[in-house]
């Protein structure tokens, strides 16, 4: 598994656990450190994991608002935890990351792959639909 893909998997698992337990303040750091130890021994780019985590948490309200606008029939609380956190990763990379490092189509594809690997049968399509909607809006600006 490529280093950045593994990093995104660790970020998703960390955000999932943090979200599951009510987003307790100061717990995400310990969760992330444990997941890096458990799932990413020898991971070369640990810095990337922390950049994603910190960026997502910093922009969480904005990202969640965008999810709700792009999927109005799905209130954020009704989106399955895995899908919700995969969308957070994808939207963060789509909106806030360096486009030369992570082109928009790569951000979308990576999120779809996470959804397919960790969530239900239709999750890849759902994630693709939400991220595709946001991407089209960005292109039209």
Describe what this molecule looks like in 3D.
This protein has 141 residues and is mainly α. The protein has one domain: NusB-like (N-utilizing Substance Protein B Homolog, Chain A), CATH 1.10.940. Helices cover 72% and strands 0% of the residues. The protein contains 7 helices and no strands. α1 crosses α2, α4 packs across α5 and α5 runs parallel beside α7. The longest helix is centred in the first third of the chain and has 18 residues. The chain is globular. The protein starts with a helix and ends with a helix. The model has no long low-confidence stretch (mean pLDDT 94). Belongs to the NusB family. This is Transcription antitermination protein NusB. It comes from Candidatus Staskawiczbacteria bacterium RIFCSPHIGHO2_01_FULL_39_25. Involved in transcription antitermination. Required for transcription of ribosomal RNA (rRNA) genes. Binds specifically to the boxA antiterminator sequence of the ribosomal RNA (rrn) operons. Keywords: RNA-binding, Transcription, Transcription antitermination, Transcription regulation.
């Amino acid at each position: 598994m490529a280093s950045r893909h593994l990093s995104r998997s660790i970020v998703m698992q960390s955000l999932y656990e943090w979200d599951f337990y009510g987003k307790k303040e100061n717990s995400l750091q310990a969760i992330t450190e444990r997941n890096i130890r458990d799932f990413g021994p020898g991971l070369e780019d640990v810095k990337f994991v922390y950049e994603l985590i910190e960026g997502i948490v910093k922009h969480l309200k904005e990202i969640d608002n965008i999810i709700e606008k792009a999927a109005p029939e799905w209130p954020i609380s009704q989106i399955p935890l895995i899908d919700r956190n995969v969308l957070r990763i994808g939207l963060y990379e789509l909106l806030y990351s360096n486009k030369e490092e992570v082109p928009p189509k790569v951000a979308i594809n990576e999120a779809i792959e996470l959804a397919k690997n960790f969530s239900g049968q239709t999750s890849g399509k759902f994630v693709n639909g939400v991220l595709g909607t946001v991407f089209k809006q960005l292109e039209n600006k």
